[in-house]
Design brief:
The structure is a homopentamer.
Chain A lengths: L1 E5 L5 H10 L3 H8 L6 E4 L3 E11 L5 E11 L2 E6 L4 H13 L6 H14 L1 H21 L3 H33 L10 H64 L14 H22 L4
Parallel strand pairs in A: 1-5
Antiparallel strand pairs in A: 2-3, 3-4, 4-5
Helix pairs in contact in A: 3-4, 4-7, 5-6, 5-7, 6-7, 7-8
Chain lengths: ~290, ~290, ~290, ~290, ~290
């Protein structure tokens, strides 16, 4: 078995291999124009697969990287993006792991397996992020929460696209009887499919929770506004009778009841207290706090 | 028939059985890495099934436990999680019930049937929880209601995943002609499928109601805020004319009408009463309380 | 043809029939454990069908009742719930209608047809209820409207489940070539299928309208709050200048402009009127009422 | 070819034809019980089709009318609703257009084509209505807008049902090899199918836009309330310092600073202006207007 | 190979070609009635395809243009809209590119490929627009944001329709074994299909993000209203004690505590400060700002 590891898709090496193994021009073009979707295409002489690895950058945004594989009867060609140390490390890991194995389909499976293993930590990260957003939405909703929901949504959309396409690849591998993959690899490929399907399931769950977080945000803000309104109203309730009564007794009009009496002040404050108390009792009665 | 009951998936006993019955390494791995999805896989010598039991912890959260079954021509192997008394009890129950029966497929069906029976009480619990949340959303919406909606949503998502996968298992059993299951068990397996499908139906209904509860929460809070605003406005309506009129008569300006007259007070209070009454009548007229 | 009418599913009569016609134990269990979903199961000697009738109780809630039918070559067995006069009446109606007919499949069709006829009045009732809820949501949204939306939603979910399952039964009957149903009954069974499909269509429409009613409720309350806020602001606009100006002229400070002049009052009231008018004009200009 | 035009479905003429051409009793019943869904049913001797025409009444509500067609080897029977001049006109139009043609399938196609042509103007009408509702929701949301959204929603639901069923009819015609339709009519029937599918597409788009209009309504009202609140707060900001300061200087308490000074008034007004300016500056700084 | 380029669909040239190549009248009609959906129809002598190109006008609205192609054994007929320089340019580009190629299917592929290339820049534009709308919704929600969301929604609906239909065309080409397309073109047609499918994926993602932007708008406005309410309440909190206390001391009533004392003023201001401080502390304590 020959394993051609190409780490610069623009190198002439790839053209040489294309000629030697009769690789289709469209596939070479796919290798060189990055940011393809994950896909698999079966040709007479080989199987061409685009796989997507994912990782998080420092700010929690999702980055994806392509890895292209040509799997033939007796050769494997892997084409990396030239500036991605993660993919480079993954290839080295596979190389070490596939130590004594010489079959192309075993190498192919191992690469795929390692690729798929990059998905779970990312999903776990977003699960935690959404947990945090939920808590914020409930206890302290701010515009930052909203921005967080939106960013996570965008990232999950990207993640979902990667997973849907990878699942289709895995499904194709599992269902189609390819001449390049021996039957003892089938359970392992089915296992890869199960992993991806489970991940996709998780993404759908996360999206569902995210939508819920937005609803909770809105409900939570509405509830807070309601609380604020009530405080405002109660404050008004307490203050208004005092203001009205004292304004009345502040008029330069003769004959205000009790003004001359020594109990004037008691009468006035009593009126205020009764009015305020009555209003508070009425609010209580109509059961809104 | 031999029934191997393994309650510690890490015991060497499992390795011995794997060798004896030629169990696939991936299936042994599934037994040892818990928290698999429910699934069924047919191998030449046996059928491997992962089943999920559910129960509620004290705070109403959903817990799941795996039970792995290998069903062969003349053997059954059950692998439990080692710290789950519920699954242990279930196995004992099945053992007692399958008293005089010696066929592996009968044991297999009984375990499945008991497993599926753990789902209904959990769903009934959530039905009640949602009922309570609805009532709260209508009569006293608080942030706790929102948190409750969210928790229930998360639990139903887990429950749904268990049920979807279990339905697929039951569907597979019902449609595929397995050499390890005799035809007189078919109606019973179809019955299991019907149970699970009905449960899944219920979960979808509960999710639908939960979404509705959130909408009702939002609508209910909005309505309450509206009520509070109206109270505030009516209070303002009653107080403002009194404040305005008495402020005016409090001015140190000469020539306020009627100030010198003995009916001054009556005039002033009359003006206040008319203005307040007029405003209330106007609000009434525009029909908003 | 023999028609066995069993009105108490727990009677030993049913056990006798089970033995005579070799009815499957699971089907007998289904007859005795009520609240099954509508379903159809074909056995070598007979077709077993669970059908669901619906009716409204006095408070407009949906009640369902099971009716189980065994249809064989030369027999029909109907098993009723023992406390349901509606189903009893339906059976009597069918008995009268199928006067001269002696074929089991004709009786079977007639029962099904009458059963399906119980659905339309219920749907018409909910259509009216939703119409009323819409009107309330638009003109006078109260918490009762919300509770009504929620109750109707729950009932429609139940109704939908009955209809989906009944449609599957009708579809099965229409597509499968059963030995117990003669070909001249096919157009009639297709007619039943069409009825149920149309009813299901109606349920989906009602659910759609119900969701819309909730959206309208929320929008309508938001609009009302907006109106209330505007009234509050306009009232503030009218009152504030008067309060501010008269407070200023109420100060015990010397030198307020015009206080000594005979036109003091006119100046003061003029200032108030101009300020109020200016504010109202500004609000008008910014076009928000 | 014989074309029987029946404009009163209750006329005995229809019974005579039923006998002569062996029309199925269920189809005759369908003709007589109006308000069927569009459908097609193939019988040994003929094809029975229910078609739905639509039009708008003066208030913009959707009206539907049935037209039933029996298409046989050498006959066409059309059954109209007896009080629908539009359908009458349509039949006359077809009669004129199919001047020299004598084949039943050509007449059948022409009727269908004319029927389908009644859909587009209705959809165009609703497109305009929704455009208007959107504009209202953005610039002047009132309860009438909400009522308009709801009415349009109901009408589109009806329209959608007509189109879905008609598409199924057209699809059936296009796929099934009917003995009553010659192959040169196939492209024309496919054309009808395309028309209906395009219309259905438009209905889905309109429904989508309508849902959006409701969201915009809610957002727009929320935004307006926010504006009103800000105006209220700014007004409060301007007035409160003046009220507080002048109330303080209105107290009958000795020793208020500067009261005796000739600059008292300047001091007081200066304090008011500074306090108001400070508050406005603070609001500005926190960037909320 | 003959390539007939018709740039005015109403020219008699098209009629001549219709006669010569036996083009179906319905297809000629499709060429002349513009604004068809993208579609493909296979006839005995040729394949008829309607393709849709898109571009943005100056205000960012989406414009579509039809291009009709008849592909036969040895001819290609392209029919342009007569007032569309973009399509004209596209045809010229294809002509130049297909310099030395003489096969009709190659020309056909090239036109399709160039057509599909017009979609991506449009989608990128809307991606940026939605990014901007999101930012506006978060930081400065105005009615213009809402109008922008709605306009983009309408445009994406149109874009989606174009893409769905084009995907169906590409899918048909890829699956059907047409006598007019040689097998070496198949990978290229599959590539076109992949492009369109990826674009459609992007449209769905954009629609999803747009819905999210509306939710964020609503949440953001609700949050802002909440902030405004809090400011209003805090301002009330600060002012009310001062107003109440100074109103009370402004009353013309004898016996107000401390009025005669030289510390009167200190007492009064102290009371105001304590009351205001107490209220602010209470609000803080209940944790709402």
């Amino acid at each position: 078995m020959e394993w051609h590891k190409i780490s610069d898709p623009n190198s002439p090496e790839l053209d040489r291999l294309a000629e030697r193994y009769q690789l289709h021009p469209l596939h070479i073009e796919d290798c060189r124009h990055r940011n393809q979707n994950a896909k698999i295409e079966q040709n007479p002489g080989y199987v061409f697969t685009v796989m997507k690895g994912v990782r998080l950058d420092d700010s929690g945004d999702l980055l994806t990287a392509d890895l292209d594989i040509f799997l033939g009867k007796d050769f494997v060609i892997t084409v990396l993006e030239d500036d991605c140390p993660e993919m480079q490390a993954l290839i080295e890991l596979v190389e070490k792991a596939s130590n004594g194995e010489s079959r192309p389909d075993q190498v192919y499976y191992r690469i795929m397996d390692h690729m798929v293993d990059t998905y779970l930590p990312v999903l776990d990260h977003y699960d935690e992020v959404i947990d945090g957003l939920e808590d914020q939405a409930l206890s302290a909703p701010t515009p930052e929460t909203l921005a967080g929901v939106f960013d996570t949504k965008r990232n999950l959309i990207v993640m979902r696209r990667v997973l849907v396409n990878t699942r289709d690849v895995a499904n194709h591998l599992q269902r189609t009887d390819s001449p390049f993959i021996q039957s003892d690899m089938w359970p392992f490929l089915r296992d890869v499919y199960d992993h991806v399907a489970r991940n996709l399931d998780t993404v759908e769950m996360l999206r569902d929770l995210l939508t819920g977080a937005l609803d909770v945000y809105l409900s939570s803000v509405a509830n807070r506004t309601n609380q604020v309104m009530k405080v405002l109203t109660v404050m008004g309730t307490v203050a208004l009778p005092a203001v009205v009564v004292s304004s009345i007794y502040g008029m330069n009009v003769k004959g205000l009841p009790g003004v001359e009496s020594p109990y004037a002040l008691a009468v006035v404050f009593g009126t205020m207290a009764v009015a305020t108390g009555g209003l508070l009792w009425a609010l209580k009665r109509f059961d809104w706090w």
